[in-house]
Amino acid sequence: MLEGLKVIDLTWNVAGPLATKCLADYGAVVVKLESHKKVDLLRTYPPYGGGKAGVNRSTFGATYNSCKYSIGLDINDERGRPIIDKLIRWADVLVENFSPGAVARWGLDYESAQKINPQLIMVSASLQGQTGPSARQPGLGTMMESAAGFTHLLGWPDRGPSIGFAYMLTHGLTLLGKENTKKTMGKSTLSEPRKITDIVDKPAIKITQPSGIISKQSIRQIQSDK
Fold this sequence. Notes:
CATH topology of the domain at 6-133 and 166-194: Rossmann fold
Strand content: 5-15%
CATH superfamily of the domain at 6-133 and 166-194: Crotonobetainyl-coa:carnitine coa-transferase, domain 1
Structural class: alpha/beta
Radius of gyration: 18 Å
Largest sheet: 6 strands, parallel
């Protein structure tokens, strides 16, 4: 389905690696950039192969990064910059989920990357968007799920709220839609999943215009069906 799509995976923890794994599972060539100095948190989560902890033994790290290529690279080292630029010229898509401002400090923000590859599609995902009063608030996806009300909708009626992982797939779905746009219009795009205030006050998940996945109307319907 996605054969020929070339993706730079500059993500960590759970949401980003799972979204890019979905792209790899559907045939995209995904190259994950990793640091040996600060490893992806996924590599630290148990259970471990053989019951022994290690960055190459985590079940989560192996599962969420399967079907990918991997390069160990220190982005802060100028000697690695030619390699990064070469990858950007090669790629169709760059995905990152660091805190706002991080990729800009590395010279990997959308404006900088587009100068190297004008056709590049970039997806930036953070807890509460790239701009706005809460953009700098750090956190992980489960916090956003709770704030947006997803945990209230999940689980069993006689039990407490549950944690789900549907939000992770929105980034992968964004890429699928944007890649189709690129093929039909020939334009590069910055795709940013909506910040938390949009999720609370507007459609619950909005990938890009014009359609959302879960709207307030569908949430009310789910609640009324309980």
